[in-house]
Amino acid sequence: MITTTHYLVLSLILFTLGVVGLMVRRNFITVLMCIELMLNAANLNFIAFSRQLGDLTGQVFAVFVITIAAAEAAIGLGIIVALVRLKQTTDLDRVNVMEG
Amino acid sequence: MSWFLVHFAQLVFYVMAACVIAGAVGVIAFKSPVHAALSLLASFLGVAGLFVLMEAEFLAAVQVLVYAGGVMVLFLFVIMLVKARAIPREPQYVNRLVPAAVGLGVVLALLLGAGMWASVTGAPADAAALQRVAGVQLGNTEAVGWSLYRDYLLPFEVVSIVLLVAMIGAIVLGRKEPGKEGRA
Questions:
Q1: What are phi and psi of B133, to 5 degrees?
Q2: CATH number of B2-125
Q3: Which of A17, A27, A29, B30 could form a disulfide with B24 if both were Cys (CB 3.0 to 4.6 A apart)?
């Protein structure tokens, strides 16, 4: 029997991998992908609890999360295009203009 | 054979979970952004399979359409746009991956179908609660839509405005500055 705990553990692993990727990688595009992974982990939690509680609210909020993730991807990739135009790189270590 | 039927949902869960985690590891491990994006796609599809397993069929469809369809194409477009000078130097780059891509696609399609079959045949006791709104039995999509447009109408409208703002923002960010020759 697959319980809610199974899904929570999976979601935890997925979120942790997202955080690790966020810290390890220096490529802006890959960092954005890791943020998507973390949002997916949140969605898994929403649906798992929605199933356990027999309540649709979790599914509705997962729809909202997906919408926000799409908006985030559009803006993030727009920033990448602008960044490459400005500095010819997506390496986050070389984007330090605003450091004091 | 009966063991297989009894443990079918578990089997699907573990295979999907392995797919999700392997995809996530691939996103971190692959050096090439194209490989990372395709690995992310495997992860997204695995999550969609898990949604099917949890009787959230509508969200599984949305996951495939929005993530695997929209967001992934956007990512790949930007990768091609950004790395346009670096990628075409390797002609074997894509050819080498075709068998792996086809195999993965077939396996994922089979798993998704198996997950749907499992959720159709072996419905647990709380499945009805997820498809009931105001005492009326509906399909999952209908129930989610009903809840979305009745109980959460205001958040829904706010999210639509966020999406509109994001769209305008992306257009403004991606626009060439007038009078300047953009190279990217």
A1: -125, 125
A2: 1.20.120.1200
A3: A17
A32 touches chain B (CB under 8 A): yes
Parse chain B into domains and list their residue ranges.
2-125
- Neighbouring-strand partners of residue A27: A91
Q: In chain A, which residues have their Cβ closer than 8 Å to the Cβ of B44?
A: 36, 40
| Shortest Cα distance, chain B CAs vs residue A94, angstroms | 16
Per-residue pLDDT of chain B (184 residues; tens, 9 = 90+): 677 777 888 888 999 999 999 999 999 888 888 899 999 999 999 999 999 998 888 999 999 999 888 899 999 988 888 865 544 343 433 455 567 767 777 776 777 677 666 655 654 545 566 666 666 677 788 888 888 888 899 999 999 999 999 999 998 988 876 655 545 4
The number of angstroms, rounded, from the C-alpha of B172 to the middle of its chain's C-alpha atoms is: 27
